[in-house]
Amino acid sequence: MAQRLAPGDAAPEFTLPAVGGGTVSLGDLRGQKVIVYFYPKASTPGCTKEACDFRDSLASLQSSGYAVLGLSPDPVSALEKFTANESLNFPLLSDEDHQVAEAYGAWGEKKNYGRVTEGLIRSTIVVDEHGAVELAQYNVKATGHVARLRDKLGA
What we know:
The protein is 28% helix and 29% strand. By secondary structure, the protein is an alpha/beta fold.
């Protein structure tokens, strides 16, 4: 089981391929707060609900000083379709080898319908403008997560 992050920890740096070509690095966003959310699979019901909630809340999050990055183990091609189909307005990044998810404690054993498997654990990590973890949430429920997160952040 990967070590989970806690407030005050240094957020692990990463550079990942992004929808639209190129890469996105956490370090490039230094100076602003960043919501890094991990989701298991593009275009599935729960992940679509969560992504659309972030899409619909992006303006209020941005006006409160937050950028949003969505990470999954999907290849960029799947993320491009997901972005187009759902009109997503924030970067989706491909973590195919799940090394970033592991570094963030978002990869490990999980229970799904009574079965224990290894995979991505739906998680949200808020990184402050200095690169430290402000908030770390693991095993979040997709439905209503963004509203609860906005309340907690005052966004």
